[in-house]
């Protein structure tokens, strides 16, 4: 049997009421959710705004701190450094800022003070150099005056001093010849002493003149073949070479620029010394070695004589210095000093070394300005030695 129509309508009405009540509940829940969401949105916006304000505030504080502690002190320090660098080094760099900036400013100030100290030292050194230059100028004038006096002395020595010495020697010999029969042995001995002293004084004056005239003769430098110079010296000393039974050999000698007369004196003095100071225990030999260097020739005179002790190697170049009594070896003590002066006048230097097995090696240098003249010889000729005596 079908339900009554009235019950169905009531059921529909009840369902509508229930749906409406449910929708009301959903609407209330939705409204509450929206309200809560809006509240959280407001909180979030507030938090963001607050955070932005905090960031801006912190950034401002940091900028102010950076400007106060770093930028301004750094700018002040830079300005002070530029002032010092522009030449006002006496301007003090005061400490600025804090921390590393202050430490940096202190280091810069310390550097400025050290630089100022060094500049003061340089100023004093420059003043000393200027004073030394003035002194050197004065000394140069004094040396020039002294050289003029020395030249005058050379003139006097060559004329006014040697003439009385010649008279002393001449008249002493005439006295001995004329009154020799009336004089006893002691008188003859005194006359011989006087003559010998006068001759030695003449020789000494002659050597002094040669020493003082080195570099002031006005002679032009010329091309000098040392082979020819040595040949001339050997010819001049031929009697002494033969008397000593000496053997002289040499490497091919170079051609140099210099004063021929002075270079002749160098060779003559060195060979004379080698012959004079020969060893009595063996035959005398002298060898001239040549070594080619980049800017000079090194020439060595090697002998097998009595030799020179190393401690006296420099002393022998001092004028009037003698290592042996005059009774043993003749001479004035000027020879090697004259050689040294001539070598240095030609831009070289000279020294002495011991010779292995005994003897002396005198080495000196001469500027290498001309091609060696020894290149004309063959290898066979270079291996051969020239024996004289």
UniProtKB/TrEMBL annotation:
Ranges in coiled-coil conformation: 108-146
Presence of keyword Coiled coil: yes
UniProt cross-references to Pfam families, sorted A to Z: HATPase_c, HisKA
Catalytic reaction list: ATP + protein L-histidine = ADP + protein N-phospho-L-histidine
Chain ranges of the Histidine kinase domain: 156-370
Enzyme Commission number(s): 2.7.13.3
UniProt cross-references to InterPro entries, sorted A to Z: HAMP_dom, HATPase_C_sf, HATPase_dom, His_kinase_dom, HisK_dim/P_dom, HisK_dim/P_sf, Sensor_kinase/Photoreceptor, Sig_transdc_His_kin-like_C
Residue ranges occupied by any HAMP domain in the UniProt entry: 68-120
UniProt keyword annotation of Mitochondrion present: no
Cross-referenced SUPFAM superfamilies: ATPase domain of HSP90 chaperone/DNA topoisomerase II/histidine kinase, Homodimeric domain of signal transducing histidine kinase
Keyword tags: Coiled coil, Kinase, Membrane, Phosphoprotein, Transferase, Transmembrane, Transmembrane helix, Two-component regulatory system
Location(s), subcellular: Cell membrane
Transmembrane domains' residue ranges: 42-66
GO-annotated molecular function: kinase activity
PANTHER family: PAC DOMAIN-CONTAINING PROTEIN, PHYTOCHROME-LIKE PROTEIN CPH1
Protein name as it appears in the record: histidine kinase
């Amino acid at each position: 049997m079908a339900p009554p129509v009235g019950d169905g309508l009531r059921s529909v009405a009840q369902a509508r009421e229930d749906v409406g009540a449910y929708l009301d509940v959903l609407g209330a829940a939705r409204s509450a959710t929206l309200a809560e969401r809006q509240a959280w949105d407001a909180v979030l916006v507030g938090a963001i705004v607050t955070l932005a304000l905090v960031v801006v505030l912190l950034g401002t504080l940091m900028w102010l701190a950076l400007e106060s502690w770093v930028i301004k002190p750094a700018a002040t320090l830079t300005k002070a450094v530029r002032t010092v660098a522009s030449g006002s080094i006496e301007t003090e760099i005061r400490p600025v800022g804090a921390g590393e900036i202050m430490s940096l400013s202190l280091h810069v100030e310390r550097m400025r003070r050290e630089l100022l100290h060094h500049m003061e030292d340089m100023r004093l050194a420059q003043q000393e150099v200027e004073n030394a230059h003035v002194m050197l100028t004065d000394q140069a004038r004094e040396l020039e005056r002294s050289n003029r006096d020395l030249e005058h002395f050379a003139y006097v020595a060559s004329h006014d001093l040697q003439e009385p010495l010649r008279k002393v020697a001449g008249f002493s010999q005439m006295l001995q010849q004329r009154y020799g029969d009336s004089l006893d042995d002691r008188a003859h001995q005194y006359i011989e002493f006087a003559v010998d002293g006068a001759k030695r004084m003449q020789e000494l004056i002659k050597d002094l003149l040669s020493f003082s005239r080195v570099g002031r003769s006005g002679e032009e430098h010329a091309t000098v073949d040392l082979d020819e110079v040595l040949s001339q010296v050997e010819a001049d000393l031929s009697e002494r070479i033969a008397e000593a039974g000496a053997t002289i050999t040499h490497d091919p000698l170079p051609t140099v620029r210099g004063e021929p007369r002075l270079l002749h004196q160098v060779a003559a003095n060195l060979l004379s010394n080698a012959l004079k100071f020969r060893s009595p225990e063996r035959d005398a030999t002298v060898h001239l070695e040549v070594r080619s260097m980049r800017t000079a020739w090194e020439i060595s005179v090697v002998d097998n004589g009595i030799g020179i002790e190393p401690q006296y190697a420099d002393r022998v170049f001092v004028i009037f210095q003698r290592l042996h009594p005059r009774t043993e070896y003749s001479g004035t003590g000027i020879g090697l000093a004259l050689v040294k002066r001539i070598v240095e006048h030609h831009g070289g230097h000279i020294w002495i070394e011991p010779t292995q097995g005994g003897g002396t090696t005198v080495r000196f240098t001469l500027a290498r300005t001309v091609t060696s003249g020894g290149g004309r010889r063959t290898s066979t000729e270079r291996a051969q030695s020239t024996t004289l005596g």
